[in-house]
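pinging the channel bc i need a second pair of eyes. not urgent but kinda urgent?? the chain im working w is below, pasted from the shared doc
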Amino acid sequence: MLAKRLEMQEIQLAYLASRASIQLTALFNLINQKSTTLSIAVAEDTRTLASASKEDSSVMRTVAAVTVIFLPGTFVAALFAMPFFQWKIGDGDMVSEYFWIYWAVAIPLTLATVATWLLWTRRQARAQRTRRSEAIEGLYMGLEGKGKG
């Protein structure tokens, strides 16, 4: 009878160990499910932030473009307004006969500034794409290296 009772205790102990293992697995799966849900939420928030950042970048690019277009003309106008230029206007004239000099200086200066800005931004974008592709390639190479080991 004692042997029978000991056998029953062993069976019950094995059953409880099995049940604890099943509950531990269920708990682990629930924690992983919650972690995955949180990761998805973080990814969605990151995507929203990236989109907003891209819109801000677009607005800043527009502000920079407007500045690049108007700044050279403003500089030339301020330069010509200095007192060391003697712009004499004849009687009845509203505009000096030398007004064409403003356009002759401002337009090429504006075109040169815009061209320089465009070249610089394109070079920066190309460098950024190269860095990004190298980083992605390095990531893939690292993953392949871990898979072989």
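so The two ends are 57 Å apart (CA to CA). and The chain has a mean pLDDT of 85. — does that match what u expected or am i reading it wrong
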